[in-house]
């Protein structure tokens, strides 16, 4: 079977590689030539993914290209961001469809993995089926950055065909490497399932973040309160943080809001989570009204190199607008909008250290040496990962998001 995978990002590349090592002829397509060179050099963080991509390329089962080819199956994994009005930007998806049109033949199968509003797959099929007798399905990914390959193999998948035959054909594609269960449904339901999964998480994070704001106001340590509340057998409150990042959670709920007037709770939860970076900046302003800020962690969460929708970007930009001097450090991230410094340079002459990502490297920082580098011994932990007593033993004033103690 020949398969053309369009979009070689966090999902497209491992999908293409897995299909290739399971004896399919795969063309991996990305219009970004720089990305193609990165893949050839195996220039990405996940070690397991490197070995699988290397094996796929060396076997000649995976070919890289900047344009599609004739194939039996087309899998589309391109970005679907939100635009300024919080609506889904389908331009990348529409371009991918246009790019494969010259190669489409009767009985080809098109699978969309990109996250889309409900009804999108049906709309695309209606247009394409006017010209060709094709099959089409929607099959969303369910993986976690930092653990992509294992979850791609082991997690259950939902496959939504435009008709029953499309679902069955798509199932045959994935069952060559997916060990999890493959659930068949219709395309519109599969699209909604993907959005519901990430919206569920977003709403729960928003509750934790709102608790953090309330506890700041009432001078209660939210972390202790959450820990005690979670002793209840039917309660599992998540941890608050500086904002919600990544490709899915801060984006997908808006696709439901776009389609339904009933998405009121979902919209409010999104607004709560989107407000957290400014909440962190306001806390910073109360600690130091000017000076040098050291940002530790620009990835959207700990132990990944993913900066998509990272709250760090909004926080840095707002601090710069307010006149602060800002330096950033991240042991995982290679590219960021603003310059990344090594740890020593980032902390030198700092007036406030702000931890935004809970990387393992930040849990055991050399406190004594850091105390000799900074100008003012202040640290704000938005992830609750430092030993506050130990930092205070070395003369630092420690602040915690949601701890109720103002500067």
Outline the fold blueprint.
Blueprint: E1 2-6, H1 12-21, E2 25-29, H2 33-40, H3 47-58, E3 62-65, E4 73-76, H4 91-100, E5 109-112, H5 120-128, E6 135-138, H6 148-154, E7 157-161, H7 164-174, E8 182-186, H8 187-218, H9 222-229, H10 252-259, H11 264-287, E9 292-296, H12 311-321, E10 325-329, H13 343-347, E11 352-355, H14 367-373, E12 378-381, H15 388-393, E13 397-400
Parallel strand pairs: 1-2, 1-4, 2-3, 4-5, 5-6, 7-8, 9-10, 9-11, 11-12, 12-13
Antiparallel strand pairs: 6-7
Structure overview:
The chain is α/β, with parallel strands linked by helices and 407 residues long. 41% of the residues lie in helices and 14% in strands. It has helices at residues 12-21, 33-40, 47-58, 91-100, 120-128, 148-154, 164-174, 187-218, 222-229, 252-259, 264-287, 311-321, 343-347, 367-373, 388-393; strands at 2-6, 25-29, 62-65, 73-76, 109-112, 135-138, 157-161, 182-186, 292-296, 325-329, 352-355, 378-381, 397-400. Strand 11, helix 14 (367-373) and strand 12 form a beta-alpha-beta unit. The protein is globular and about 70 Å long. The model has no long low-confidence stretch (mean pLDDT 95).
Order of helices and strands: EHEHHEEHEHEHEHEHHHHEHEHEHEHE
How many β strands by DSSP? 13
CATH architecture of the largest domain: 3-Layer(aba) Sandwich
CATH topology name of the largest domain, in short, is: Rossmann fold
CATH superfamily of the largest domain: NAD(P)-binding Rossmann-like Domain
Helix content, binned percent = 40-55%
The number of helical runs is 15
Radius of gyration: 23 Å
The biggest beta sheet is recorded as: 8 strands, mixed
Order of strands side by side in the largest beta sheet? 3-2-1-4-5-6-7-8
Strand percent estimate = 5-15%
Question: What is the molecular shape?
Answer: globular
What is the CATH class name of the largest domain? Answer: Alpha Beta
Domain module count: 2
Gap between N and C termini? 63 Å
Low-confidence stretches: none
Estimate the mean pLDDT confidence.
95
């Amino acid at each position: 079977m020949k398969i053309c995978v369009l979009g070689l990002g966090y999902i497209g590349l491992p999908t293409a590689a897995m299909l290739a090592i399971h004896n399919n002829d795969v063309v991996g397509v990305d219009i970004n030539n720089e990305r193609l060179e990165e893949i050839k050099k195996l220039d990405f963080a996940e070690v397991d993914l490197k070995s699988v991509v290397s094996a796929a390329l060396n076997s000649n089962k995976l070919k890289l290209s900047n344009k599609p080819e004739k194939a039996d199956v087309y899998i589309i994994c391109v970005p679907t961001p939100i635009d300024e009005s919080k609506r889904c930007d389908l331009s990348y998806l529409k371009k991918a469809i246009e790019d494969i049109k010259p190669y489409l033949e009767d009985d080809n199968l098109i699978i969309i993995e990109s996250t889309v509003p409900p009804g999108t797959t049906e709309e695309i099929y209606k247009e394409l089926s006017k010209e060709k007798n094709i099959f089409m399905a929607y099959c969303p990914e369910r993986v976690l950055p930092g653990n992509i390959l294992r979850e791609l193999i082991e997690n259950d998948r939902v496959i939504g065909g435009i008709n029953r035959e499309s679902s069955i054909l798509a199932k045959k594609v994935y069952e060559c490497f997916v060990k999890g269960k493959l659930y068949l449904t219709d395309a519109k339901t599969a699209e909604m399932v993907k959005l519901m999964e990430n919206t569920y998480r977003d709403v729960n994070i928003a509750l934790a973040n709102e608790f953090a704001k309330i506890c700041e106001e009432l001078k209660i340590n939210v972390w202790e309160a959450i820990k005690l509340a979670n002793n209840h057998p039917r309660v599992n409150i998540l941890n608050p943080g500086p904002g919600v990042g990544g490709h899915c959670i801060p984006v997908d709920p808006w696709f439901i809001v776009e389609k339904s007037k009933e998405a009121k709770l979902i919209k409010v939860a999104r607004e709560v989570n989107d407000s957290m970076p400014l909440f962190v900046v306001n806390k910073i302003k109360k600690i130091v009204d000017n000076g040098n800020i050291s940002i530790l962690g620009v990835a959207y969460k700990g132990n990944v190199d993913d900066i998509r929708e990272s709250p760090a970007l909004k926080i840095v930009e707002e601090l710069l607008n307010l006149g602060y001097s800002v330096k950033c450090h991240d042991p995982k991230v290679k590219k960021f909008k603003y310059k990344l410094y090594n740890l020593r340079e980032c902390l030198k002459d700092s007036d406030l250290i702000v931890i935004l990502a809970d990387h393992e490297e930040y849990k055991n920082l050399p406190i004594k040496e850091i105390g000799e580098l900074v100008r003012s011994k202040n640290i704000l932990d938005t992830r609750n990962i430092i030993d506050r007593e130990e930092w205070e033993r070395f003369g630092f004033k420690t602040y915690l998001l949601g701890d109720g103690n103002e500067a």
